Structures are given as structure tokens and as C-alpha cells.
Amino acid sequence: MEMRELRYFVAVAEELHFGRAAERLGIAQPALSRALAGLEGRLGVLLLERSSRRVGLTDAGAVLLTEARAILAAAETAERRTREAAERRPRIALAVKAGTAGELLAKVLDAYGADPGACPVDLLLCEAHEQRELLCAGRADVALLHLPFDAVTGLDTEALLTEGQVAVLPGDHMLAGRTAVRQAEVTAAPGPPPARWPAPDGSCPEGPGVAVRNLTQLFQLIALGRATVVLPASAAVDLRRDLVAVPVTDAPPVTTVLAWLPESRSRPVADLVRVATSF
Asked: Start and end of every HTH lysR-type domain (predicted)?
């Protein structure tokens, strides 16, 4: 497999739409389709389920998505560290779960960028719970984690934001017009059960709901009437127009933290933490 093919596959797997993936990659859609068909042919497996109305991941495709993200992240890290060694210029690799804490992240990066001693910050966009893996593997210097969902045992942390949660529903859902709901109402409402997220060890808990690994997949399934979800309010700031977010009054609060390895002696990481916790 070529790095180019892995980048193409990840784009399609995240967008679940060949047109959007091609636009994101800056290539023609037919070329993208041919490249992925060639990859499937050489592997001898079907990675994507295609129809005239949707694109979905097969089980084999879900495995390759996880592996491809790790490979691309490792390649980016190798490139970054090689250039740092040549330029003697430090950088910070920040791991973030894709689609979360967007407004908070923008504020942190803007504030840090204005600091006189700021270093360039490379963002590593991850699936659920991959931030910790990148930290422990040395591919990230610092990560944004979300309590109580992510495990922080053995890490140093600083809290940045505590927020409530919302139910993300199709626009025509019976609860879509409400100003607030309770968790029991979301669970008891007619329609699909809540989606299932991976546990910190990567396994997906048993249950009737559809298993998902990223917000792009999840929001498309919700729009199709195949899932519902309760998640932090900040993850639903820029929802697609056919979805609504309704506050869930009794959902536990979610705290976003910056996390890093206790043995870290990085001055840029210390500066980033100092700036991020100052507002």
C-alpha cells in the first residue's frame, strides 16, 4: 500500500462521500474512485460499500481506517522530528479527537500563537481514545481529553472547560422541538437506540445501537434515522442543517483537559499549558 492510497482511503472513510473526499484532497473524483478500487483489488477485500445513495465502511474497511490513521500519524511524526532535528526548532504535536472542542481549541491555539515564545503546533486528528495512544507512543506531546470518557490515569492534566451535554437528533424527531429533555426521554423515544462508542481499550460495548468511531459517521447515521446520541455540547456547535441539538438536563457534565506524560520536560508544552489555563 502506498501512503497516497492510505490518505485517499482515510478521506473517503471519514467523509463517507466520494465527492466531498475528492474536494478535500484536491483531486478529481474519478481518479479517487480508481485509486481505491485498485487498492481493494490488490488487497482482495471490499473496503467500502457503495450504492447510489450512500457510502459505508465494511468490517475490513474499519480495520484499515484505524491502521491507516496510525501509519499516517507515524509518518507525519517521523517527518516532523527529522525536520526539527535539522532545523533545531521545537514544535508541539497536539492530539485531538476529530470534531470535538472546536471553539475551545481555536481559542487555545490563538492565545498560544500570540505568546512571544510560541512554537508551531501540529494537530493530530484522532478517533475516540486514540489521543492517549499517541501520547504514550511519543507521537504526540500533549492531548485534549474528555472526562469521564477518556482515561487519564498516569497522565498529568489541567482542566480547561466543563460543559453540559446535548442529544443530537434528526430534525423530524419527536423531541427535536423541545428546549430540554432528560436522558430517560431520549432512551424511551420511538426510533433507533443510542449509538455505541468504543471503550478506552478499543472494544465496543454490547448493545442494540449502531457502533461508531467518529463524529462524521455518527452524524450521517443520525440524519438517516439510524442512531441518536448524547454528547458534549461543544461537539454539536456546527451541526449539519438536518440535525438538532437539545440540552439534556440530567446528563453528567463533561470536562475537557490538556494531558501530557509526567516525565515530559518540554518547555513548549509547559508554555502551552500555562496559556491554555490562563483564560
From this structure: 1-58
Contact status, residue 255 vs residue 162, Cβ threshold 8 Å: yes
Tell me the sheet residues that pair with 246. 167
Q: What angle do CA 15, 17, 19 make, to 5 degrees?
A: 110
What are the pLDDT digits (tens) for 123-144? 998 887 889 888 888 889 999 9
Residue with cell 448493545: 207
Per-residue pLDDT of 189-219, as tens digits, reads: 888 888 888 777 667 777 788 888 788 888 8
Burial of 231 (0-12, 13-18, 19+ CB in 10 A): buried
Q: What sign results for the dihedral spanned by CA atoms 162, 100, 150, 218?
A: positive
**Cα dihedral angle (266, 273, 147, 144), rounded to 10 degrees?**
-70
Question: What is the rounded distance in angstroms from the CA atom of residue 194 to the CA atom of residue 175?
Answer: 14
Instruction: Calculate the alpha carbon distances from 264 to 46, 129, 156, 211, 268 in Å.
Output: 42, 20, 9, 35, 10
Residue identified by cell 491502521 is 67
Length of the chain (residues): 279
What are the b/e assignments for 18-29, b being 16+ CB within 10 Å?
bebbbeebeeee
Residues whose CB falls within 8 Å of the CB of residue 217, separated by 6 or more in sequence, listed in order: 16, 57
From residue 89, give the alpha-carbon distance in Å to each of 3, 85, 98, 108, 120: 26, 7, 27, 21, 9
Q: What SS3 state is found at 278? A: coil
